[in-house]
Amino acid sequence: MNFELLYSDRIKQLSPSPIRELLKIAVKPGIISLAGGNPSPDTFPVKELKDCFLKVLEKDWKRILQYSPTEGNTDLIEIIKQYSRNQGINCETENILITSGSQQGMDLVCKVLLNPGDEVIVELPSYPGSIHTLKSYQAKLTGVPVDQEGIDIDILEDILKDRQKTGILPKFIYLIPTFQNPSGVTLTETRRNSIIKLAEKYGILIVEDDPYNALRYDGENIKPIKALDRNENVIYMSSFSKTFCPGVRVAWVVGPKDLIRKMVIGKQGADLHTSSLNQAIVAEYCRNNLMENHLKDILSYYKEKRDIMLESIERHFKNVATWTKPQGGFFVWMSLDKKENTDELFSKAVEKGVIYVPGSSFCVDGSNKNSMRLSFATVSNENIKKGIQLLSEIFSL
């Protein structure tokens, strides 16, 4: 069978995820991986998870081992509703959909909103997983640069003004405003207010991807963009993957009721519903206030790693590179002299025994070739120091 004749145009134009490909190298013995964006397994609450698993099985096994409503576990939805309201997000039960990870949330947003050729605005740089999903729906992607305060509002407005003249606006703006993946920067409160005003002015949607919000190590908390939304301009997505464990594949979307209903229809064609068992475990975990204590533990854990990475970069890259200083999340974004090319030097890094993710992997226009994403989340403290030292040798600093 010649499958090349059968493949859809959609799949033919997709390439493998660069980060997923890097993970194959990361597992090789002796490699220090500063590339992965995974939470550390050391933070997974295994004992508590086991206890919750046994408790929900004993209490309600007939229900949680059965098919369940597409919208999600009612107990979990109530927990998320209250959590959302505590963040300033005004929502009801009908505004919430439980998804199998945030990646499915993004896929459903695209399934409901995008036709081939529709334009979507993304950050430069942005998360490759969402870029991959957007490309699978054959969207036209336009990048807007990110600086230390988040997406450049002036450039964004210039694009919207230009598109308004043509009469065809982008379908939505995709943002990771808090501890952004990959840059680690956080969109300032001033810019959040500006971007919601732009959304209202031009009648455009914002898709707010917010998986790192609870992972703040210092600085003042900034409310999600969705908390500023008064005209249903924002679709909000978040997840338990970074704070609990990614293997449970439980996340959620908060959006306008009509949109959520359409997403429910789309989800019914994908997986019918997110795992009933996993939802029940997460609900039990949250209901018993275990999440609060767990967060305290993992915040101190990750903060120490973040500080060690920043100190190591300062020691080895001072005056020869610039880098972000994230107040939370998992990532530091480092940019070298323009003549350096992190794509070309990647193989040299592998030979040395350390890997990173080249900056161009995060950019829809292939820019930021002198940059890289560094993750401190899953690396031992000693290997963070050693890895940064090896990078300084690779780049001849």
UniProtKB/TrEMBL annotation:
It comes from the Bacteria. GO terms for molecular function: pyridoxal phosphate binding; transaminase activity. Keywords: Aminotransferase, Pyridoxal phosphate, Transferase. It holds the Pfam family Aminotran_1_2. GO terms for biological process: alpha-amino acid metabolic process. Residues 31-389 form the Aminotransferase class I/classII large domain. Belongs to the class-I pyridoxal-phosphate-dependent aminotransferase family. This is PLP-dependent aminotransferase family protein. The lineage of its organism: Bacteria, Bacillati, Bacillota, Clostridia, Thermosediminibacterales.
